[in-house]
Amino acid sequence: MLALGGVAASVTLSTLNAETVGAPPVLRINAGQVTAKVSPALYGLMTEEINYSYEGGLYGELIRNRSFKAGANEPKFWSALGGGVIALDPGAPLNEALNVSLKLDASRASKDSPAGVANGGYWGIPVHPKEKYHASFYARAAEGFHGPLKLAIASTNETADLASVEVAGLTSGWKKYEVTLTAKKGKASKDNIFTITTTSPGTIWFQQVSLFPPTFHDRANGSRPDIMQLLAGMNPKFLRFPGGNYLEGNDINTRFDWKKTIGDPSRRPGHPSPWGYWSTDGLGLLEYLDWCEDLQMEPLLAVFAGYALRHDYVKPGPDLEPYVQDALDEIEYVTGDPATKWGAQRARDGHPAPFPLHYVEVGNEDWFDKSGSYDGRFAQFHDAIKAKYPALQVIATTKVRDRQPDLLDEHYYRSREEMQAHAHDYDTYSRAGQTKIFCGEWATRVGSPTPNMAGALGDAAWMTGMERNSDIVLMSCYAPLFVNVSPGGMQWKTDLIGYDALTSYGSPAYYAQKMFSTHHGDVVLAASSENIPTFSWQRPAKRRNGVEQPPPPAQDVPTLFFDATRDSRNGTIYLKIVNTRGEAQPVQIEISGVSKIAGTGQSLSLKALNMEDTNSIQEPMKIIPIMEKATGLGANFTRIFPAYSITVLELKAK
Length: 654
Ligand code: AHR
Known about the structure:
Largest sheet: 10 strands, mixed
Bound molecules: alpha-L-arabinofuranose
Structural class: alpha/beta
Distance between the termini: 30 Å
Radius of gyration: 27 Å
Shape: globular
């Protein structure tokens, strides 16, 4: 038997060569031996603006390029209607932040030929029957024009508007207008546009043209309820934000500059995201925090650490001081009493109560910084944060020499085979140091735009390793979280949750996450195994300096994964078993260390006929977990686990 036990490892695993596959695997769980506590913060979420995660995703705004800053020379995503002529007008700004406007020359408008502007939203404007949509915009008009303007949601397939309302009383000064559009009866649809038209000739300027559907918890400037419900189902314990690359920006000027993302949304300048599109920053720092509050999770705040993606960096020392101060101010905004400067700002922004915060991450993936500046940058941030907030846990994004981070953020994007090959890595991870692990980005990258069953199986194999070792792996979160699956919506494939303008769905990997995060105990039980079947895997050859290196020797990789946790309050044992093979697998399960195990329990399982099977907008529930009564359980039983399956067996034990 090959022992994989490190200092706190709880599993021994025997690998068999191909010819010995066939002897049924045996799992032995010792419920009397606890090897670790399950970290209460193990399962969380990672998010950033990528794949139209917020704008065109979670953020409720339906108008694309509402502030006209997405293109420097043209009003991208807007078009003229009737005889209208539209152009960007830098000479008529709303304010310093929104320093351009959309000018509509409607001089040829008439009763028979309305002129105006149209916006197609993010691949459509969703309309649900009888729902109310909150429209708002800033406008001013040339002398003599008072309106009215007609705001409408119009179908691209039908002639009658789905909703419309009139706004009158425009003046030559900027003024905000707010109205409600109520959708008619009918079917839900997304092949719609938003229009503003007039039958009176004149010239009008617009800025911050906005349309919101009902939002989660009815928050103004809030989030899309269907996606929030999917997230709530995962019972996440934290939210790592705002990135990822989005935190860093392509260069320092386009980083996530949090002070420009708070306050009145019409005073936020917005910025280009490194993923190739404009962000209005409508979902800014306070909206992230509201999101945490709505799902009862804690923020895991990543602060900009003086390094941007195109290798622009700030030298540690005096040059870095303003950035360190910015991070301290940001922490104060999140946690400060309203008597503090930034706590007072948060209160003015609408949230007097401080938010809880335990984790601050310094930067993102700083192993890309080849200047060697991260050691110094991390030390400077670490010392300043610890001096002012000694209770905060500080996370490093790569190994550092000069300070001891509380956690180290490790990222893994891998194939299914690689995930399986590495699923036992943490069993032998040294427990000698004090730095714990945060798997802050990871995914089995199989399936596009969202992972298929192969992805879910690789993820589940990996999660058994994290859960079993959650004395050292304190926190984990899959990435990326979201993708708008409309054509052109994706920059990074294999994303947990997919959506278009109208509907959303969880991938098989989403359901695997949900099963793990909502079905576990608070302690890890000792477990060992025999006869685990393996397959021979040839790791792909690596390239170094453009030259392919000799491939490493083929290795035997397990195909069956498991871990056992227990709820110490009621005795329930959660046994997770992942069968990655295309055949049903009988497994003998022996449980010791308890006086009684009920013969009946529950089995929650996710399975597919093929590894490539997946969920989609068309088939959102093709692969979902099924909860069933499980019989024949006891201290020694054999159970058959289906091909390509992830199972949580719940056993009542005393
Ligand atoms: O998750 C996608 C990207 O992967 C993140 O922005 C970055 O941190 C990582 O390289």
